[in-house]
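Batch 3, record 17
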Amino acid sequence: MSCSPFDLRDYLLQELTGPQRTEVEAHVHSCPSCRLEMERLRLTQTALASLADEEMPRRIGFVSDQVFAVSPWRRWWAAFWGSAARLGFASAAMLSVALIVFATSRAAPAPRVVETVTGVSDAEVQQRLDSAVQRASAAIEARYLQRTEQLVKDIELRDRAERGVIRAQAQEQIDFQQRLLQAAKRSQYVASTNDGGPR
Amino acid sequence: MIFRAVEDADLIQRAAKGDVEAYNLLVSHWEKPMYNYLLRMTGNREDALDLTQDVLLKAYQNLGKLAEPGRFAPWLYRIAHNEAYSMFRKRRPESDVDDMAPRPAGMGVTVGGSAVFPIELSLSVASALERLSPDQREAVVLKIYRGFKFEEMAEILDCPVSTVKSRLYTALDLLKEELAPLEARGVS
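Prediction for the assembled complex:
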């Protein structure tokens, strides 16, 4: 187990920063066990380095062939999706268009008037408030009075009309009864003349 | 290295637009490291060569999806990792890839039973690598032989950095036990 401030393998694998490397070197200089461990790691690294890359059995080359070639449209599409910047720009453009369409297709809201009252005492405010309440209540009363008068007039008119109708219906009934009575009298008279007539 | 990266970025952009010659130039930069990575993974030259071709063809067809040309290497090795494991699963569908039995010790990388590395140390190293699990071996190859950073390895292997470190450290400890005494004896 190494007591080095940083992993000795990271040192050999070039994964430490300059100051970290310096710290490890100072420690290894003064620590026999870490120095031995470092030596074994170096030997391992040297042994691994002895395995050189092989040459290719044959070189690889490509020819322009439509079978393997990607179509320009597919290439453009792949490049488009592969590029975060282009995709982001397209998204921003679509969002802008959506905002413009939304803004132009919707009526602008009416400007809101904000009244600011400055330099008015509480008494004046109360007075204005009272007068406003009075005006409002007077207007309401007047409106109710007018509506009541109109209702009374309507009821009277309707009552008068209904009475006329009832009177006319009663008159019709009376006339009908009278006609029935007269008809009955005539039929009675005819019967009597038939019974007591010339035999 | 910086000039190579800039040149590769330019080649990637041209190849993404359909320039096959630019892609061939890019292939010439990457085919050998890719072949050797796959050779360490599969232990077979023919498989490694076939997979290298498949990987580079797939990369060409999907270059448009590569958002950052600077991330080409991890992206390419991610494809290679997937292709290699896909082949493992096709060959041994009934067993877990991680449980695949290592090759017999001391055989080295072979084609038709003949050893590829004549030097004893190289043979021992190849043998020691093959005794590792596929995950551990891949971690060693990506770090020691291909020089990727932990974050890039995590991207290629699609796992957390902590998992990458764990695999690599375990592998290094095993290799140290086998190779350090050998080296100390002055075999090389």
